[in-house]
């Protein structure tokens, strides 16, 4: 059975979140410069205007990584909330109807519980065929239900690898930007012949901003990954409990007719 696509937030909203975070990083320096009555020559704006292709490319990669992290976090939270709502619906109404087919068709089309229930009913119908007569009915139904549950688990795990990748690599991408900024500072010292603060303040400020942006991209990804993994486990446990009850009901019920697709 094919899964219906999610309705995801727009890319503009997802990119706006990390941009706001970057703006917050520049607030303390901007506030200090405003209090001093002059523009900040070493802030984020100056880094973007005077940075070279490498520093701008590193910043762009960090922005993409941060946007991808928030994209996954938001969509997985919405998906998990839907599963929890569907769990309450199943607990309240599914087992109160007269037959499994009617209870299954009463579930929403996008429900993961309907997917599992339809898989069980289809397996029950298939068991009437000649090819499954040598297979134990309990094993056949159990295998079909578990395959459907595993498919739901794979669907819930989708996208978490993005968070793991961002959480493990974003600090190093930011560190690369830091090293590049220090390299510019050393170059400025060599060209000037002296280590004056006005020669190295810009490149060093660029290096520190890159470090901060790398951490700003990595920390939400790591925290979001751990949080979503725990919530996924709880959601999948609810689906497994339903699968166990469904398997018991299928064993005790009569063979079902083919579901209308």
Descriptive report:
- The protein is an all-alpha fold and 261 residues long.
- The chain contains 8 helices and no strands.
- Helix 1 crosses helix 3, helix 3 packs antiparallel against helix 7 and helix 7 runs antiparallel to helix 8 (197-252).
- The chain is rod-shaped and about 90 Å long.
- The model is unreliable at 1-38 and 255-261 (pLDDT under 50).
Summarize the structure.
With 261 residues, the chain is an all-alpha fold.
| Main β-sheet description | none
- The average pLDDT value, as a whole number, equals 75
Helix content: over 70%
N-to-C CA distance? 10 Å
N-to-C order of helices and strands: HHHHHHHH
Shape annotation:
rod-shaped
Give the amount of beta strand, in percent. under 5%
**Quick one: how many beta strands?**
0
Alpha-beta classification: mainly alpha
Poorly predicted regions are 1-38, 255-261
C-alpha Rg, in Å? 27 Å
Number of H/I helices? 8
Write the layout of secondary structure elements.
Layout: H1 11-35, H2 44-50, H3 53-93, H4 100-106, H5 112-126, H6 137-157, H7 160-192, H8 197-252
């Amino acid at each position: 059975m094919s899964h219906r696509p999610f309705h995801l937030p727009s890319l503009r909203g997802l990119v706006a979140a990390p941009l706001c975070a970057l703006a917050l990083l520049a607030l303390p320096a901007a506030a200090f410069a405003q209090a001093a009555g002059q523009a900040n020559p070493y802030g984020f704006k100056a880094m973007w205007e005077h940075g070279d292709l490498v520093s701008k490319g590193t910043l762009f990669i960090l922005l993409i990584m941060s946007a991808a992290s928030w994209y996954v976090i938001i969509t997985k939270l919405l998906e998990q909330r839907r599963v929890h709502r569907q769990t309450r619906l199943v607990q309240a109404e599914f087992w109160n109807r007269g037959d499994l087919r009617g209870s299954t068709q009463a579930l929403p089309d996008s429900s993961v519980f309907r997917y599992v229930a339809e898989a069980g009913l289809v397996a029950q119908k298939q068991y009437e065929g000649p090819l499954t007569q040598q297979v134990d009915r309990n094993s056949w139904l159990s295998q079909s239900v578990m395959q459907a549950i595993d498919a739901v688990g794979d669907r819930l795990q989708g996208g978490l690898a993005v968070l793991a990748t961002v959480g493990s690599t974003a600090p190093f991408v930011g560190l690369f930007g830091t090293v590049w900024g220090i390299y510019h500072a050393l170059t400025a010292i060599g060209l000037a012949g002296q280590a004056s603060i006005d020669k190295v303040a810009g490149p060093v400020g660029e290096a520190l901003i890159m470090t901060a942006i790398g951490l700003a991209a990595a920390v939400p990804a790591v925290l979001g990954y751990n949080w979503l993994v725990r919530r996924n486990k709880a959601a999948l446990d609810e689906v497994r409990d339903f699968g166990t009850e469904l398997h018991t009901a299928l064993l005790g019920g009569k063979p079902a007719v083919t579901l209308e697709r």
